[in-house]
Write a structure and sequence with these properties.
Blueprint (H helix, E strand, L loop, with lengths): L1 E5 L5 E7 L6 E6 L7 H12 L3 E5 L15 H12 L3 H13 L6 E7 L1 H11 L6 E5 L16 E6 L7 H10 L4 E5 L16 H19 L1
Parallel strand pairs: 3-4, 3-5, 5-6, 6-7, 7-8
Antiparallel strand pairs: 1-2, 2-4
């Protein structure tokens, strides 16, 4: 179901929501650079089926509404261009608006993928809205590794990710020993996306199991 959110600066954005509204646990799911597309709705639905109330905000609405991209080279270029026009401080306002729209009384977590992995990290370090945060292959996390999460955090990376070298992952580990960091041998960027050539089903399933176990521990 699609809903409309209003951020603290008055910006309105669309969001896709799923799961039981009476849920005791709730998640903000954060998109890749490809918008609220079929893959991201599938991800959100998987968490809804696990019993979570879920909101997936359309972060590109600040630049262009209704963005749904695929995974061609042209889509990648367009997604990067759109992301480059989005102010990360305003993105934080959007995910906080999504968090506020989750069921009252539910313990709230945040999970993001690709660009959304970095946004989830910012949600953990720059706000107190969440009780747990998970990021999958967030390329901007290393640059923000000196920012301390205000909640438990877990990160997932592919060993052969061309955009996130292992030196970045080791830098994160060194700076943030309190954070759970998992590396998937041989996996590249986007290994969790069933629509990409880099998809690794076994690694995606393992990372999802670890993500769900992490949220079960920290969201009660």
């Amino acid at each position: 179901m699609e809903i409309t959110l209003t951020a603290a600066d008055g910006h309105t954005l669309s969001a896709w929501t799923a799961g039981p509204r009476e849920a005791a646990r709730a998640l903000v799911v954060v998109q890749e650079i490809f918008g609220v597309n079929r893959h991201m709705r599938r991800v959100a639905q998987s968490f809804a089926e696990a019993g979570y109330a879920v909101i997936l905000p359309a972060l590109f609405d600040r630049v262009e509404r209704g963005v749904e991209l695929g995974y061609t080279d042209e889509d990648v270029a367009r997604g990067r261009a759109l992301r480059g026009q989005v102010d990360e401080h305003k993105t934080l306002l959007d995910i906080l608006a999504a968090a506020a729209a989750l069921p009252a009384g539910a313990k709230r977590g945040i999970v993001g993928y690709c660009w959304g992995g970095t946004v989830a990290w910012h949600g953990a370090t720059r706000s107190s809205a969440f009780s747990a945060a998970v990021g999958w292959y967030g390329g901007g996390i290393a640059a923000a590794r000196q920012e301390a999460p205000r909640c438990p955090a877990q990160l997932h990376f592919g060993e052969t990710d061309a955009s996130i070298p292992m030196s970045d992952v080791e830098a994160i580990r060194a700076a943030r020993p309190e954070v759970e960091v998992f590396v998937y041998p041989g996996a590249g960027h986007g290994f969790g996306c069933e629509e990409r050539g880099s998809h690794v089903p076994a690694d995606a399933a393992l990372a999802q199991r670890r993500t769900l176990e992490f949220f079960a521990r920290h969201l009660g």
